[in-house]
Amino acid sequence: MAPSDKTFTVTIVGGGIGGLALAVGLLRRHVPVQIYEAANAFTEIGLGLSIGPAAHRAMPLIDPQIREIYDSLVTTHADSPGYEEYRQTWFEIVWASGMKEGEVLMELKALPSGQTTLRRANFLDALVGLIPKEIVHFKKRLEHYTEKQDGVELVFDDGSAVQADVVVGCDGIKSRVKESMLSAEESMLTQPRYSGMYCYRAVLDMETMVKAVGDQRARVSSIYIGKGAYAISYPIMRAQKVNTGLYVLDPTWDHDTWVKPVTRERMHQDATNMGRYVRSLVEHMPDASQWALFEHPPISTFCRSRVAIMGDAAHASTPHQGAGAGQAIEDAHVLAELLSDERVETGQDAVAAFKAYDHIRRPRTQKVVSSSREGADFFCLCLDGVEDDEERLKAALQSRFRWLWDLDIPEQAQRAKTTMYSVLESLTDNSRPCNL
Fold this sequence. Notes:
This protein is α/β, with parallel strands linked by helices. The protein is 39% helix and 23% strand. The chain contains 15 helices and 19 strands. The chain has helices at 17-28, 53-62, 64-73, 120-128, 176-181, 184-189, 206-213, 215-219, 264-270, 275-283, 312-315, 324-339, 347-379, 390-405, 409-426, and strands at 10-13, 33-36, 48-50, 89-95, 104-109, 117-119, 136-137, 142-148, 151-156, 161-164, 166-169, 193-205, 222-226, 229-236, 241-249, 259-261, 289-295, 303-304, 307-309. The strands form four sheets. An eight-stranded mixed sheet has the order 5-4-13-14-15-12-17-16, sandwiched between helices. A six-stranded mixed sheet has the order 7-2-1-11-19-18. Strands 8-9-10 form a three-stranded antiparallel sheet. Helix 2 runs parallel beside helix 12 (324-339), helix 12 (324-339) packs antiparallel against helix 13 (347-379) and helix 12 crosses helix 15 (409-426). The longest helix has 33 residues, at 347-379. It is an enzyme of class 1 (oxidoreductase).
């Protein structure tokens, strides 16, 4: 890495996909980085991962190696012989039950990348290879941080503490960075909340999936829409496996943890009204555990002084918009561009970078959270004004994703820089939240 002209180091708390993408982007731009990770190794919770077109375009702008890694690992519909024509298909939307059970409502395309999927752990493992070992500190679970006159003190649960110039919290939906950053009242009011839906999920062998639902439904990414529930499936691992899930609306969650084991009878009961395709899919799921889906209520700011949060730490979302990981990647691009800018020379200058990041990214990411929550009702055919009306469903499907996918990624970063330059000229009080 070339010498840096920065007088500050960016300390990243948390080493998931978003945190590592940011680290790679900063290192490529010669910004010094240190990473503190709670676990004893980098790990990723979750099964399949799907990245939309906007985040796909952001990857090479962070670092071309990220896009190269992603493209080398992903599965597309073209990995199944005979399905090359579906290369640009995002999902086929399929009626789960009723008179049109099994029929395709519409084919939703995501140009030009189409559906690209992979296992989260595989992507994370590959990103780890881009991170120098000497900048990583494992078994460092943050307890809290304290602002100092010239930086930030991070205190970990092992009793140790480090002094940081600039901090970015990438520590997930239960973020301790966020908890310390917000006021006690706001932190209490914006704890992760149950979204009103839980899911069952599994990775099945392609051969098993073909027997369960037929060749096309197994090999083409599908969303089965139904009353009160919906199901999803998409191929991963070069079409050798299929990631599957059944999502069920339920207003209450009465368990202390976010995962609750139930009987297979209960799981089958949740699929009773879903038609033979989904019932057969559920029949082959080996684990009858319900996974509660939580999300972040909107918060007032993504930064305070020399500390910012990104990814799930800032805007954890349900999966119904297919954009959670993609938003973390977009965050990483904007932050890498801002913090590496030649006008950001000191830790104090980074305050302006964080203000600009918050100004540009918070509205979009919080819209993703609310739109995804609405998506649960949409796919369960109970969204007001749409419900199960075929034409309204088709029109709404197009509008639900176009604003998300069509973002001009370079222009977003440029808007953030323009905002930052304005803040740098006027910044006088770094004790306030970062709203503009």
